[in-house]
Specification:
Keywords: Membrane, Transmembrane, Transmembrane helix
Protein name: DUF4760 domain-containing protein
Helix content: over 70%
Shape: elongated
Largest sheet: none
Organism: Paracoccus angustae
Radius of gyration: 32 Å
Length: 225
């Protein structure tokens, strides 16, 4: 049987059509499966981000409500008075959701993961500081040292507010505007930091000029003599 005759054989044609249908079915199934996977991943990303945003928001709001600068200064003054006073510092658990979903953190974009991880690293550092403060033996150390350690603890919590707000900003940007919104936020923050650095350098230069000018003035020379 020739090739042309084979192609006109009804059995061959039926087999070819059946094969094409099966192959087409595989392609369609694969496309649908890939689409479902993308949809499931996008939903998982939203769930992870929403959970982290909620946990961070609650903790940051709590820290803000504590008026840490004033409270820390009051407690530090009491410690410096001596007499063995030191406040009770409770254990903090503000990373339960993060600990539960940390294995899925990789699903988030890098620009979102970075500030989130920085915030939770700060919480871990605060936890270690709490453990150290609880081990203090006030009968063996100077009150000024205990006060400095407590002040450092308060400063770490104040820094956690800034880190938490940055993490929330990136999470919210990705939740509402996707990767493009995150890129715009990142660019704007980098520009703001650059301007802040430039302003700081300019201020330092002006201060140095003023100091050198005062040091080289005739009045200062006579005073030095």
């Amino acid at each position: 049987m020739t090739f042309a005759a084979t192609l006109t054989d009804p059995r061959v044609v039926a087999a070819m059509i059946g094969g094409a249908v099966v192959a087409g079915g595989w392609v369609v199934t694969h496309l649908l499966s890939a689409r479902r996977d993308r949809a499931a991943r996008a939903e998982r990303v939203r769930d992870v981000q929403g959970a982290l945003y909620a946990e961070i928001r609650v903790h940051v709001a709590t820290l803000k409500g504590q008026n840490l600068p004033r409270y820390g200064a009051e407690i530090e003054a009491l410690i410096l008075k001596g007499g063995g006073y030191f406040p009770v510092i409770p254990t903090e658990h503000n990373d339960r959701l993060f600990a539960a979903i940390v294995e899925d953190i990789h699903v988030l974009p890098f620009r979102v993961v970075d500030p989130v991880v920085q915030y939770y690293n700060q919480l871990a550092t605060i936890g270690a500081m709490i453990a150290d403060l609880r081990k203090l033996r006030l009968d063996r150390i100077d009150p000024s040292r205990a006060a400095r350690m407590y002040r450092h603890y308060i400063e770490m919590k104040i820094e956690a507010i800034d880190l938490g707000e940055e993490a929330m900003a990136y999470l919210l940007a990705h939740l509402t505007g996707g990767s493009e919104a995150v890129a715009r936020l990142s660019d704007s923050r980098q520009k703001a930091r650059l301007e802040e650095t430039k302003a700081g350098v300019a201020s330092w230069i002006e201060a140095e000029k003023a100091r050198l000018s005062a040091g080289n003035s005739p009045a200062s020379g006579r005073f030095g003599q």
